[in-house]
């Protein structure tokens, strides 16, 4: 059905069948006027479930043609289930039937019914398990729990795919899933999508070859080449071998992500045995409140999440953001990725992960002189946060000559300083005291305790 503004003498409509390529034009007669004062005309004898292109112009008394309107692309509906009829009734039920043929591969139907005086339809889903077949090969269903002596209106259609959902999104794609069961024999599906502000649906036919199945047995499809940070509306229907379309699902709305921070990279020359430095682009339009940095050991599945406020992020001489991740384990392979957060805490697309290994620990010269076993123990202690009890310790008293180093040692050992002379060279006192690591008490050579 088409509408035009009132005031034209004659109207011509051009019709183009998009699939087969033919076109024709018709002089419109029997044009009606609706309550809004617009012309209304119903174009008859078209093919079901077929996409047509239509445009309109007016003719004056001299048969001069006006400018054509912009083309419209409506699609006729699929054929409804045929020969719906009410074959039996009781005080609380109505039994209906409709045609079934050999090509009927619909998984389910949707039955709408209402009191004749009501405007609201009651919707009931009929699975094929609850539908019987009579001796004439027709579908039969009994609708129960109705009011006695009440006039009902009924209509039926085939059912949409179940549980359509959007399970993943990126800056340029949306991944959808919907239920699949053992009786699913559809040849293909039809996905319609559009910007939320657009009236025109973009139609994409999905063959079963391009549809994957996830671990839960659901159909999964990834819709690519979308605009970033854009709200999309999606709906889906199934197609059988005769290209008959089912009911559409309820539309789903989801927004693609913001573009990920650009040129994310590792600054290898600034990384150490306990830190990794990263950088990414910053431009004049950068209004992000914060960033989110995820990192993990390469062989661990769980990400560690760190929020980076702009106060903790530096800017290098090239105008790039720079951040140094601290307190990492030495000689360990890490995987890192980053995204931005806006003022509503909405996360952008993540960058591609980068992998970097922290450096080996640079051992002090004194540690390098230890036996290999002690060096390994030292490295393990530095790598971790554990502590170790040591039962041998060397204390060095260093200072200028004559400042009282020998006297200090005597006092620490609870000895008299009478007769102390200046040390000539180095004085080594071995095993002169012990400390109980449980109670902290010192034991001097002669058994004296110092608390």
Automatic annotation (TrEMBL):
Pfam families assigned: fn3
This protein's UniProt keywords: Repeat
InterPro entries per record: ECM_Regulatory_Proteins (IPR050991), FN3_dom (IPR003961), FN3_sf (IPR036116), Ig-like_fold (IPR013783), P-loop_NTPase (IPR027417)
Keyword Mitochondrion attributed: no
Protein name: COL12A
Organism: Mytilus edulis
Phylogenetic lineage: Eukaryota, Metazoa, Spiralia, Lophotrochozoa, Mollusca
Keyword Ribosomal protein: no
Residue ranges annotated for the Fibronectin type-III domain, each copy included: 160-259, 260-361
């Amino acid at each position: 059905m088409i509408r035009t503004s009132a005031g034209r003498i004659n109207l011509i409509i051009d019709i183009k069948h998009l699939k087969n390529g033919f076109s024709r034009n018709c002089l419109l007669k029997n044009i009606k006027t609706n309550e809004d004062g617009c012309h209304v005309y119903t174009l008859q004898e078209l093919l079901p479930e077929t996409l047509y292109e239509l445009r309109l112009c007016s003719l004056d008394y001299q048969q001069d043609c006006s400018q054509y309107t912009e083309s419209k692309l409506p699609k006729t509906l699929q054929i409804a289930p045929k020969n719906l009829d009410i074959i039996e009734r009781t005080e609380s039920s109505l039994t209906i039937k409709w045609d079934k043929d050999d090509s009927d591969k619909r998984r389910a139907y949707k039955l709408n019914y209402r009191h004749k005086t009501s405007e609201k339809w009651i919707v009931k889903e009929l699975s094929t398990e609850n539908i019987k077949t009579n001796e004439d090969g027709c579908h039969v269903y009994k609708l129960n729990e109705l009011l006695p002596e009440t006039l009902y209106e009924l209509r039926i259609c085939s059912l949409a795919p179940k549980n359509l959902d959007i399970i993943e999104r990126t800056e340029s794609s949306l991944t959808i899933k919907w239920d699949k069961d053992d009786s699913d024999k559809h040849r293909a599906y039809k996905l319609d999508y559009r910007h939320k502000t657009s009236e025109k649906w973009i139609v994409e036919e999905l063959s079963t070859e391009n549809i994957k199945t996830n671990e839960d047995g659901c159909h999964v499809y990834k819709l690519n080449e979308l605009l970033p940070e854009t709200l999309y509306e999606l709906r889906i229907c199934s197609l059988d071998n005769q290209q008959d379309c089912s009911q559409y699902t309820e539309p789903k709305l989801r927004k693609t992500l913001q573009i990920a921070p650009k040129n994310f990279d590792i600054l290898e020359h600034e990384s150490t045995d306990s830190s990794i430095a990263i950088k990414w682009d910053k431009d004049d339009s950068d209004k992000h409140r914060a960033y989110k940095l995820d990192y993990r050991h390469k062989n661990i599945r769980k990400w560690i999440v760190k929020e980076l406020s702009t106060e903790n992020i530096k800017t290098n001489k090239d105008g790039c953001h720079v951040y140094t991740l601290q307190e990492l384990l030495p000689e360990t392979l890490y995987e890192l990725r980053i995204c931005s957060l806006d003022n509503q805490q909405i996360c952008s697309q993540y960058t591609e992960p980068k992998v970097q290994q922290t450096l080996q620990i640079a051992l002090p010269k004194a540690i390098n002189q230890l036996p290999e076993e002690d060096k390994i123990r030292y490295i393990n202690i530095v790598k971790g946060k554990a502590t170790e009890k040591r039962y041998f310790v060397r204390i060095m008293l260093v200072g200028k000559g004559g400042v009282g180093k020998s006297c200090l040692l005597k006092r620490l050992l609870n000895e008299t300083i009478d007769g102390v002379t200046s040390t000539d060279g180095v004085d080594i006192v071995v095993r002169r005291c012990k400390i109980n690591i449980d109670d902290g008490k010192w034991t001097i050579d002669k058994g004296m305790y110092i608390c």
